[in-house]
Amino acid sequence: MSDLSHVDESGAVRMVDVGAKPLSRRRAVARATVRMAPATAARLGALPKGDALTTAQLAGIMAAKRTSDLIPLCHPLPLSVVDVRLTVVAGGVEVEAVAETTARTGVEMEALMAVSVAALTVYDMAKAVDKEMSITDVTLVEKTKEVVCAPPS
Amino acid sequence: MSDLSHVDESGAVRMVDVGAKPLSRRRAVARATVRMAPATAARLGALPKGDALTTAQLAGIMAAKRTSDLIPLCHPLPLSVVDVRLTVVAGGVEVEAVAETTARTGVEMEALMAVSVAALTVYDMAKAVDKEMSITDVTLVEKTKEVVCAPPS
Amino acid sequence: MSDLSHVDESGAVRMVDVGAKPLSRRRAVARATVRMAPATAARLGALPKGDALTTAQLAGIMAAKRTSDLIPLCHPLPLSVVDVRLTVVAGGVEVEAVAETTARTGVEMEALMAVSVAALTVYDMAKAVDKEMSITDVTLVEKTKEVVCAPPS
Amino acid sequence: MSDLSHVDESGAVRMVDVGAKPLSRRRAVARATVRMAPATAARLGALPKGDALTTAQLAGIMAAKRTSDLIPLCHPLPLSVVDVRLTVVAGGVEVEAVAETTARTGVEMEALMAVSVAALTVYDMAKAVDKEMSITDVTLVEKTKEVVCAPPS
Amino acid sequence: MSDLSHVDESGAVRMVDVGAKPLSRRRAVARATVRMAPATAARLGALPKGDALTTAQLAGIMAAKRTSDLIPLCHPLPLSVVDVRLTVVAGGVEVEAVAETTARTGVEMEALMAVSVAALTVYDMAKAVDKEMSITDVTLVEKTKEVVCAPPS
Amino acid sequence: MSDLSHVDESGAVRMVDVGAKPLSRRRAVARATVRMAPATAARLGALPKGDALTTAQLAGIMAAKRTSDLIPLCHPLPLSVVDVRLTVVAGGVEVEAVAETTARTGVEMEALMAVSVAALTVYDMAKAVDKEMSITDVTLVEKTKEVVCAPPS
Q1: Residue B152 has pLDDT above 60, yes or no
Q2: Residue C147: its pLDDT value, please?
Q3: Beta bridge partners of B151
Q4: Cα separation values, C69 from A109, B53, C72, D57, E46, Å
Q5: Distance of CA F98 to the CA centre of its chain
Q6: Looking at the predicted structure, is the pLDDT value of residue C58 above 70?
Q7: Residue D49's closest CA among B50, A9, C15?
Q8: Which of A20, B58, C76, F134 is an S-S bond match for E139, by CB 3.0 to 4.6 Å?
Q9: Catalytic annotation, residues of D
Q10: Are F86 and F53 in contact (CB under 8 A)?
Q11: Catalytic residue numbers of B?
Q12: How far apart, in whole angstroms, are the C-alpha atoms of residue A35 and residue D31?
């Protein structure tokens, strides 16, 4: 019935026990797109100092660090790096985030949180001039790991 | 050049000053969709107690209360209610959030944060069985206000 | 079936909508007891500067301010005062907290959170010397309000 | 005078230095009881989907992850699992939490925080129908460790 | 003995009760200086996009919003605006923050927190190239208020 | 152009990738001074129980644990100890903080955050009686490390 990993057979939610998993170096890459009127996108890209994009980039990095505070069943992870990039394209902004850790569980929720909050921050910065934006295609595009240490036995 | 409300003429970012705006009763409604394999969606909806959906609902409500911690230029707001609903449909989950406040600035970022974090929580709960999910169409569907009090003069 | 105020008829959880309630000045008082060996209690009370108690007092005040971050369906409240007092008695420490606000909903969870976290902090300070402590009788002892402003109509 | 571990000889508070302790796999189990009228307990247990209990369970898990933010002298710990269970009994709800980590210091405060906040959340959900609840017997019932790694020398 | 407002006659700390104070529109301005080698300052000012300064500016704004989480006896305040400006000068960076609210207590700690965290962020960005920086002259330069509403009586 | 470690060649901000650095035992010591009227300092030092200083000490310890939440590009670190000491001198209070960790990156921002927030807390406690205080000489006075473990290769 349930291989949904966070719900046990009685239907109760639970945090997956990762205590016996090996320490691995883990990496995840996520993407999202903020769709907006081309005129809005053009203006975002023409700001003298790019600060709207920097604001979104920083918001994404800071949100990644708080993923386990926000997603109820996520484990706290010692992130070794979070990198968020925003690219203005015709009709929108593309957001990509890389998150890495050496831990017992994956880092994809951190990458997804980073792109989501960066996208919401772009939305917040531009909402006064564009009422029709949307955030789409929030997806995981890469997830890898490499065991660095045997599990505690 | 810039009517992007959070970037001033020199390109510096800024929090909009809402001190002179009237206190209004404000309401915003946002939506998002988590797309997944029909088999995943069917299972989410058939869990004995629906707890995966409750988890996402609570995560959305709690995230709404932390919007001003996450979106750099958002004002803290005294939310009077946040309501998050998830509906399992063929091929996914639809998330809708209502946020209301009596404040000097709008509550749309709180509603958008609620649906985004609720959607990410669904993703987290189901990611062990479905590697191809995505979150789409994060949009604001309603925003209203009603002045309840003249501004401080 | 359900007048449990945070669960609706379908069983879904919800934050109560307080937007139409009047602004009232509200006050709540809560208490808790940390039970411990008399020898532990005697030592807590004989510390040169009372700092273990001050630590617990501050932890309680700070936790009260974060109640809406911790209790999923609590509303954020603008606390006007939180006062936490600890008294060493034979066999333990009594904790009392007063919380006050001018808001649309009650402040009892803030007072209860304050005494709970203050009690847990006493436990943390003394656990190296006493393995048999417990926290009991966490209760609300007073709850009052006084309407100061008609509701927005 | 003081083997209270968090207070030094001058009476000043301090965080215990755990840098030289070995990395151990650690586990703690805590319990608490929410006492309420039998009629309230019966209703909590008869809700169509058990969501009041799920809400409390999630609140407890999330609070455990924030223990070092709330208890002033606690160390941040990489929790590998937190499990919170609530059982409706005659006259109340019993809460049990298990917390585990691989770290240099114990995880009992995390387990105690989980049961305390889960109990407070039950209180919050039911307070509209029962004004006489109390939380009692917050206790540690098990604490174990197993060294997995020699300390840094 | 003590007109230190947060310590009562018995020496116990306390949060000042502001419940009976009038709602006033309040404003505070604070400043700080980060001293560094002229070569470091020159480089900070010559970055292609000014992003190190934007990062510090945003960190200051976000920290202001969390003042009551960090300063134990501060009241939570609904900030209506926080504005942080950084100016590169010979030998350093000058930071100025303005914070405003309509509340029952002053907003100076928010302005001081903003400049302190902005200054620490400049330090963090430049510490790889300059080991001799310091932060000085963290001061309040203006504090005003204007009553907008009689107190609740 | 830029060896400012958090700004890349295009001017974009970034979190430094520490994933390939060795695990080291790291220690940092920071200091700050709160300058005030001698009469204020005398009173702080003559309080019956020293609680104003304990409050500042605890605020510093707790803030150190939240450094990565506040400084945008800081990594989360598992602090093994934070020690904050305040000394009343003629004309002010001297604050010193020690922070230690076993991690892949340094702990100086944690020590600097601890002294800054402890100093701001002294300011908050005494501001009702002294309007002319300032915080100066926030500096790093020691930074050491010792490799305990080869990097993951």
Answers
A1: no
A2: 83
A3: none
A4: 21, 20, 7, 15, 41
A5: 8
A6: yes
A7: B50
A8: F134
A9: 124
A10: yes
A11: 124
A12: 49
E36-92 pLDDT, tens digit per residue, is 999 999 988 777 666 889 999 999 999 999 999 999 999 999 999 999 999 999 899
Tokens of C16: 């109560």
**D 55-114 near C (Cβ less than 8 A):** 55, 58-59, 62-63, 66, 69-74, 108-109, 112-113
Taking the CA of residue A144 and the nearest CA in chain B, the distance in Å comes to 13
Show the beta-strand stretches assigned E in B51-133: 79-89, 92-103
Would you call E41 exposed, middle or buried from its count of C-beta atoms within 10 A (0-12, 13-18, 19+)?
buried
For chain A, give percent helix, strand, coil, nearest 5: 30, 35, 35
Is residue B21 a contact partner of residue B14, using CB atoms and an 8 Å limit? no
- Residues B116, B63: contact at Cβ < 8 Å? yes
Instruction: Note whether ipTM > 0.90 here.
Output: yes
Q: Are A7 and A13 contacting, i.e. CB atoms less than 8 angstroms apart? A: yes
Most F CBs within 10 A among D15, D74, D105, hence the mutation to make, goes to D15
Residue whose entry in the numeric block shows the structure tokens 């501060």 = E74
Question: pLDDT-based confidence at D13, cuts 50/70/90?
Answer: confident
Q: Which of B16, B19, B72 sits opposite E102 (nearest CB)?
A: B19
Mention every residue, 6+ apart, whose C-beta is less than 8 A from residue E31.
E94, E95, E96, E97, E115, E137, E138, E139, E141
Is B50 in CB contact (< 8 Å) with chain D? yes
B71–A59 C-beta distance less than 8 A: yes
Quick one: pLDDT band at residue C149, thresholds 50, 70, 90?
low
Give the type of residue at A48: P
Per residue, the 3-state secondary structure of chain D, as one string, reads: CCCCCCECCCCCECCCCCCCCCEEEEEEEEEEEEECCHHHHHHHHCCCCCHHHHHHHHHHHHHHCCHHHHCCCCCCCCEEEEEEEEEEECCEEEEEEEEEEEECCCCHHHHHHHHHHHHHHHHHHHCCCCCCCEEEEEEEEEEEEEEEECCCC
Task: Read off the tokens for D138.
Answer: 């917050």
- Read off the pTM: 0.95
Q: Which pLDDT value is given to residue A139?
A: 98
Domain ranges of chain D: 23-147
SS3 F18: coil
Three-class secondary structure of residue E51 per DSSP: helix
Please tell me the predicted confidence (pLDDT) of residue E153. Answer: 45
Q: Mind giving me the DSSP string for A83-132?
A: EEEEEEETTEEEEEEEEEEEESS--HHHHHHHHHHHHHHHHHHHTTT-S-
B17-39: average pLDDT: 95
Beta carbons of E52 and E125 less than 8 angstroms apart: yes
Question: What is the distance between the alpha carbons of residues A138 and B85, in angstroms, rounded to a whole number?
Answer: 20
pLDDT for residue D2: 57
Name the residue with tokens 């917050």: D138
Q: How far is CA A117 from the centre of its chain?
A: 7
Q: Which residues of E touch F3 (CB under 8 A)?
A: 128-129
pLDDT band for B96, please (50, 70, 90 cuts).
very high
- Binary contact (D78, A77; C-beta < 8 A): yes
Q: How far is B76 from chain C (nearest CA, A)?
A: 10
- What pLDDT is stored for residue B51 in this prediction? 83
pLDDT digits (tens, 9 = 90+) for D103-117: 999 999 999 999 999
Give the per-residue pLDDT at A49. Answer: 64
| Local structure of residue A13 (DSSP, 8 states) | B
Spell out where chain F has E strands: 23-35, 79-89, 92-103, 134-149
Task: For residue C15, give the nearest of B66, B81, B101 by CB distance.
Answer: B81
Q: Which helix (H) or strand (E) holds F131?
A: none
Among F57, F75, F80, the strongest candidate for a mutation testing the D interface, having the largest count of D CBs within 10 A, is F80
The CATH superfamily of E23-147 is Molybdopterin cofactor biosynthesis C (MoaC) domain (3.30.70.640)
**Lookup: tokens for D83:** 């499990």
